[in-house]
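Before a computer can learn anything about folding, someone has to put a protein's shape into writing. The outcome of that step, for a single protein, is printed below:
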Amino acid sequence: MPNIPHELTAQFPNFARLLSTGPMAKYNEVKEPATPEEIEEVEQSTGAAFPASYQLFFTCARAASIGDGFRIELGAAFFHETPPSEEMLCFADYWLKGDGDQALFDVSKGLIDGEYPVYYYNHGEPSVRKLADSFHEFIERVVAHG
């Protein structure tokens, strides 16, 4: 089982609980928090403003994974270049239906109350569908509760 940082448990309790007690707990991983400077540097290199709750996540853990089905890591975000997800920012591997699926931010309308809506990218079809109004909702409701 991974060592869950207190900050992660305080800010993202459902996700932290899944990391430590879920069916894949012995395969899960959490890495140490990133510094605000590291987060800002990656944000600038990505070319898109990061949502507030996404930044907060990285102050709790620079990377986290749940088995083979979910992985998020500071510095791994990139923009899709082809439809239907063109110009959406991929921020996590999220194998909801299959290997290679992803979680994306729709940055097209800019930040709304400090957040972007989160979409699921099914690479097999390919298609996108909305999952949550914010990163916090995504990580706490969608990922932690399936």
Notes: The two ends are 20 Å apart (CA to CA). The first helix runs from residue 6 to 11. The mean pLDDT is 92.
